[in-house]
Amino acid sequence: xxxxxxxxxxxxxxxxxxxxxxxxxxxxxxxxxxxxxxxxxxxxxxxxxxxxxxxxxxxxxxxxxxxxxxxxxxxxxxxxxxxxxxxxxxxxxxxxxxxxxxxxxxxxxxxxxxxxxxxxxxxxxxxxxxxxxxxxxxxxxxxxxxxxxxxxxxxxxxxxxxxxxxxxxxxxxxxxxxxxxxxxxxxxxxxxxxxxxxxxxxxxxxxxxxxxxxxxxxxxxxxxxxxxxxxxxxxxxxxxxxxxxxxxxxxxxxxxxxxxxxxxxxxxxxxxxxxxxxxxxxxxxxxxxxxxxxxxxxxxxxxxxxxxxxxxxxxxxxxxxxxxxxxxxxxxxxxxxxxxxxxxxxxxxxxxxxxxxxxxxxxxxxxxxxxxxxxxxxxxxxxxxxxxxxxxxxxxxxxxxxxxxxxxxxxxxxxxxxxxxxxxxxxxxxxxxxxxxxxxxxxxxxxxxxxxxxxxxxxxxxxxxxxxxxxxxxxxxxxxxxxxxxxxxxxxxxxxxxxxxxxxxxxxxxxxxxxxxxxxxxxxxxxxxxxxxxxxxxxxxxxxxxxxxxxxxxxxxxxxxxxxxxxxxxxxxxxxxxxxxxxxxxxxxxxxxxxxxxxxxxxxxxxxxxxxxxxxxxxxxxxxxxxxxxxxxxxxxxxxxxxxxxxxxxxxxxxxxxxxxxxxxxxxxxxxxxxxxxxxxxxxxxxxxxxxxxxxxxxxxxxxxxxxxxxxxxxxxxxxxxxxxxxxxxxxxxxxxxxxxxxxxxxxxxxxxxxxxxxxxxxxxxxxxxxxxxxxxxxxxxxxxxxxxxxxxxxxxxxxxxxxxxxxxxxxxxxxxxxxxxxxxxxxxxxxxxxxxxxxxxxxxxxxxxxxxxxxxxxxxxxxxxxxxxxxxxxxxxxxxxxxxxxxxxxxxxxxxxxxxxxxxxxxxxxxxxxxxxxxxxxxxxxxxxxxxxxxxxxxxxxxxxxxxxxxxxxxxxxxxxxxxxxx
Length: 968
Prior knowledge:
By secondary structure, this protein is α/β, with parallel strands linked by helices. Strands 1, 2, 3, 4, 5, 6, 7, 10, 11 and 12 form a ten-stranded mixed beta sheet that branches. The chain is elongated. Mean pLDDT is 82; it is low at 1-16, 378-402 and 963-968.
């Protein structure tokens, strides 16, 4: 506006439009000097300025008193809400005899442009029906980005400004606009309208009172206009968390969401507002999922708490609706144009999906850029360091001409890597189909069986037990569900793909570990040797050949776990916390199959934290330094609580020290642990001698001696723990077995492989005889993966088979699948050597069920019943079998003649046919029952499962990349 026009407008408004300024302040010392300067520079006159300070702890009140005099400053306690502060200011105006037609409301973080009030009064002159006018809000301190050009509310309670995200003021808004409401920061309102509407609502102490006031004003027939020529710069201190008050607290999003929901439900003219409340409930759940997806679980909980806070007080909500209905003078059709369009929430949903995709893309790009920067710094002559624009174009032309196939064939490392993966897939051919082995029970027929096993608190297995399912059943159930295939296909997928997956993970880990040890890092030949050698550890150790799926899974995940743990050393705190959640999730997956993993990790974590506090005394003040490893360890007990707690409560605590799979499990001694072999299993023992020898030689180079020593400490720690546990025998109800040492074997071998790779990095270029020695060592090292891979292809899985239910007639197997009351009692052995018994139900003992049965305590009553059947069977014994849901009794070949003769003479048992003449079988000729198999439901397990599901969801979200999207 030209200077002459400004003077003319000022003269025209003087004496005709009286304006009183009402400034509310709370701890606004950092903004008040600029705000006071802006008020003093207004071209339009004001009749009075009242400042209300609500218990500021800084110099805000003193600044106000110095500017306007103590008599114009109203001091209120810090608990005073904004509506109450506004009433206190109006009361002070009345007490001072100020009768102004207009009241201009300002915040202590809202600095008006010198022409702001003048433009607002000019807008009022142009639109005499306007009762409320507001300025265009721009961001402070950027001064150009637009914040608000009037506000409204969507049907989902979202505050809408009508602006694009990050939109700048380029003069695109030049005409006044009729809106639902304007922000109280700079709101010019007629005093009579303010009094008529009762001011702002006390139910909205900080946020949302502007929307509520504007909605009530519109419903009462008053017009609200935003004037683009009036500009106020707003810092949004409360919304952005720049300051906290007793009213906002730490949960700003909760306060904002509660205000929006209350405003929406209190002002809605629809009589079906209860249905709207139901709709908002489901919308809240959807918003919570959105917040969870962008790693904002705190805001998700705030959303839920805000909804509960509003609907939990229906009396207050009904009172607010009655008051607004009495003041309403216009119809719904006049208000609907002022509200947000119905389609707008769907657009916001698409924006949220776009934000998530952008965050994922930026995270991947960030990782790639960091890797290229590290490579360029380590090797200035590398491709990443010499990329001028001309060279980049030339390189792309070469790539386009030669083609991907030519590049692949001319890269020997890539060719050998592809050959190794292909050989691993060929060697895994025995795992195809429905397989079982010494360490693997057959998979169930339906993938729902795994879900039932995981979710049930009581299992109708054997004689019935409350022992929980092993934790690795959940990942297998998820895998089978995702694949949409049978559990047998999931087991096959794990056995076939685990070794190539571990090779991939080892490649990534060794590449990063090499860069941490030396600036240049390890070359691809060395990484290929280390990755392939480690990937073959579960194969040559014999775990894969026996079908021990839990150690195989742990071996596949261990390098990824180590790679995630390297993130604890990241210089950025956000990445360290993200590494904590990823490490915790992977550690939980490893612990599912090899429980000792968590105990070893906890031991290592305690040692590292103690050393850090000792060597770096100031680290205790930085929570982001010691917090991530502590969080990673704490995640595991929470995620595995449905297994750990019930196992301890039901006397199955031995399972916390046993590897998953069939028991007894082979336990390596100290020598076998160094060779990477389970007892009398796996590849020839001499193949494992090379790795420890190379690891010892890796201690020679000085450049990498410290990281190699760390690897040896880890390996020796595993050896010591294994030696101590090797003398322990766990006596279960049906068998005795040593603790599971698979994780210690895998970790020890991984440490030795890493030591060799790091040691090789410290070797200078040898000459003369040293070069000959280096060639010999390289050839010996190459024998390890080559010979191991050849052995796996030829003879690696000979113990995997498809034989199951041996000795049990097929028709009995089919009958047992009709229900739990059709059980089969299988007796093996003889009276002289001792008898053992098992009870088969449904489709037999499958993966996961074997551990449940082995950990279940002995039913001494049933043991006495079996002893009576073998010695002096009676009709009462047969009745007890029927009551226990036993339909058949089977003595697989060779059947003990003395036991068979006793059962032949027992009333209530009828001889049944068997395919093998040496096998004897009987059918119980009594009504069958499964009443004694029903153990009821445990609400503790239900609670633990719910906690586990929520924890898994939370950890997955916290592992994901963050977004920069702000929320209003």
